[in-house]
Amino acid sequence: MNRRDLLISSVAAATGVGLAGCDDHGASKLPQAPAPTTGPDGKRLIPWQNWSGYQFGVPVQRLVPKDEAELSDIMRHAPGPIRPVGAGHSFTALVPTDGTLLSLRNFSGLLSHDQDSMTARLGAGTRLGDVGPMLDEVGQALANMPDIDSQTLAGAIGTATHGTGAGLGALHSYVKALRLVTPRGEIIDCSAEQNPEVFSAAKVSLGSLGVITQMTLQNVPTHRLKRRSWLAPIDELIDNFDQLVSENHSFEMYYIPFCSQAMAVAINPTDEPMQPRGPEQDNDAVMQMKQLRDWLSWWPGMRQRLLDMATRDFEPEEAVDVWYRIFPSSREVRFNEMEYHLPSEALMPAFKQVRERIESQHHEEFFPVEIRVVRGDDAMLSPFQGHAVSSSIAVHRYHKEDPLPYFASLEPIYQPYEGRPHWGKMHTLSSAQLAARYPRWKDFLAVREALDPDGRMLNPYLRQLFGIS
C-alpha cells in the first residue's frame, strides 16, 4: 500500500470514529473581491486577484506595452498608482491598484547570451518555467531556483525570491545588470559599475522604482541534478540539520504538523543516468492531510497515530534530470503564506517554538512548514543582507481559510531574532521596524525618492510599508 492509499484508509478509519468538526476556519471572514463594474467612461472594469485570491484591486486600465518606448510614455502619462504584475504570486498587496496595471508579457525571452562569461540577458517578464528550456538550449543553467516556477523574473527578483542551499544565493544575487524604466520615463542601465547605487536598490525593489524590462544573469553550465526525498524522525532531522545543509548542494526540510516524521529533500549535481520524477504526489497528500484534520483536529493524539502509520512505509524517492525539471515542484493546492528569514543560529530555536505553538494552539493546521537556507548578499533590501547564511521558516494557510489568526500567533516568535519577512509574503511589520532591521533602509528610500518623487509607483500598501504619507 503506498503513502496515498494508506492516508486514504487512515481517513476512512477516522470516519469510522463518527465525529468530525464543522469549523469553517474563518472562511466567512475572508475578503471578497468586488464584482466587475463600469468606469466613468463607460468601460467595464474587471477586478484583478492574486494567485490565492486574498489580494485584489480594480485597475482603471490594464496596459501591455509592446516596447520600451511605449512603456516610457505610459510611465509618464498613465494614471497612478502604476503597478507591474507578473504571475500574481505575492501574498502581500504589492500589486492592487485603482490606477494602471502593467503586464510585461511583451518583455520576455532570451535576448542574448555569452558562453565565455556564462551570462544571459533575458526579458524581465519571462516566466521562470520558461527560463529553464531557454538557457539549457544554449548550455546554461540558473545557479538555483525556487520551488515554484510560475513567477516572472522581475517579480521573483523584486521580492527576493529564493531557493535553498547554504552556498546558493537568492535569484537577485545573480543579476549582473538590469534596465529600469522610471516613472519619469527615463531608461536607466545599471550594474555594479554603471549607476551602482540604483543597481543595489533595484535588485530587490518591490516594483517601487519603476519597471525593470530586462536583466543579465550570471549563470552556470547546464547540468543534471539528483533529487532525493525521504522521511525521518523530526527530532533526528533537527539534530542533523546543519550537517545535512553542509553535505548537500541544496537541502530543505518539511515539518508535518502532528506527525513524528518530517520530510527531507536534498539536491546534488550528478552524472548518473536520467531518471525523471514520477507523478507529483504532494498536492494529493496535502489535501489528504486536510481531510484528516477535518475529522480529527479535536483529537491530536489519534491524528498523530494515523499520520505516523500513513508515513511509516514511505520509500525514499530519487530522480535525476536536467536542473530545471528538478528544482521546482507543482503547487496546485492554493494557500496564503508567511515566511521569515533569520540568522542561521536562530533557526532551530525559533523553529522549535513554532512547532510547539502549532501543536499546542493550532490543531487546525495541516500544511507542512518549510525550512530552508540561503546564502547572504548585499542588495539594499535583501532580507539576507549581512548574513553569511540566512535561514527561513515558511508557514501556510489553505486559501479558503482565514490566515490572519494563525500568522498573528506565530509572527511574534521571530521578533526577538530580528527576523525579516519575505517581501512577497504576509507580515505586519511597520516601516519603523523594517528600518531598524535593514541597515540601508534610508539609502533605498533616498533612491526611490530621486527616481519617483511623485510616488507614481506607490499604492497604499507600499506607502504604508515605506512610511510615506
How are the secondary structure elements laid out?
Blueprint: H1 3-17, E1 37-38, E2 44-45, E3 48-49, E4 56-57, E5 61-63, H2 68-77, E6 82-85, E7 100-103, E8 110-114, E9 119-123, H3 128-137, E10 140-141, H4 153-158, E11 165-169, E12 175-181, E13 187-191, H5 196-202, E14 211-218, E15 220-221, E16 224-233, H6 234-247, E17 250-255, E18 261-270, H7 282-296, H8 300-311, E19 317-322, E20 335-343, H9 347-361, E21 369-375, E22 389-398, H10 404-414, E23 420-421, H11 431-437, H12 441-451, H13 460-466
Parallel strand pairs: 5-7, 6-7, 11-21
Antiparallel strand pairs: 1-2, 3-4, 8-9, 9-14, 10-15, 12-13, 12-14, 16-18, 16-19, 17-18, 17-21, 20-22, 20-23, 21-22
Helix pairs in contact: 1-7, 1-8, 7-8, 9-10
State the CATH topology of the largest domain. Vanillyl-alcohol Oxidase, Chain A, domain 3
Overall, the morphology is globular
Content of β-strand: 25-35%
Low-pLDDT stretches: none
Any idea what the CATH architecture of the largest domain is? 3-Layer(aba) Sandwich
What is the CATH class designation of the largest domain?
Alpha Beta
The level of helicity is 25-40%
What is the gyration radius calculated from CA atoms? 22 Å
**Superfamily (CATH H level) name of the largest domain:** FAD-linked oxidases, C-terminal domain
Total number of helical segments?
13
Distance between the termini: 60 Å
- How can the largest sheet be summarized? 9 strands, mixed
Instruction: Work out the count of structural domains.
Output: 3
Structure summary, number of beta strands = 23
Q: Average the pLDDT over all residues and give the rounded result.
A: 93
GO molecular function: D-arabinono-1,4-lactone oxidase activity; FAD binding
Organism: Oceanococcus atlanticus
Pfam family, one: FAD_binding_4
Protein name: FAD-linked oxidoreductase
